[in-house]
Design a protein that fits this description.
alpha+beta; single chain; Arc Repressor Mutant, subunit A
Length: 141
Amino acid sequence: MKYNELVAISGLSGLYQLLSTKSDGAIVKSLDDNTTKFVPARSHNVTPLDSIEVFTEEDNVRLAEVFINFKKNEGSAGEFDLLKADNSKIKSHFGKLFPQYDKDRVYTSDMKKMMKWYGILKKLDLIPNEEEEVQEKSEEQ
């Protein structure tokens, strides 16, 4: 499975693999339980992960680069239980994982979502490495 096949769907938690698109929606497979379902375009927005960017103090950063930073900083950030954490702990931990984020424009709910997604991708060994990210950037130019 390639990183560019992964999508987030509004109104549904977790991450999905995009299997096929239709004029009225998409067919996706859940990364959590491997169930396949049709997602109607009327009710949900399907967003590829490689199109998501995170605000920083300078330029926006692609989500794959954020996850690479998470992977690098994970050891120094320490253990963290997202389910038991309050907003201030989530902000603090996210700051350790990705220190360059814009503190005014990145919401706690988005931080929580990114940390959940990172956990899912890490469990499935789908976190891109730096070499893959550099290669994708050079292909885009």
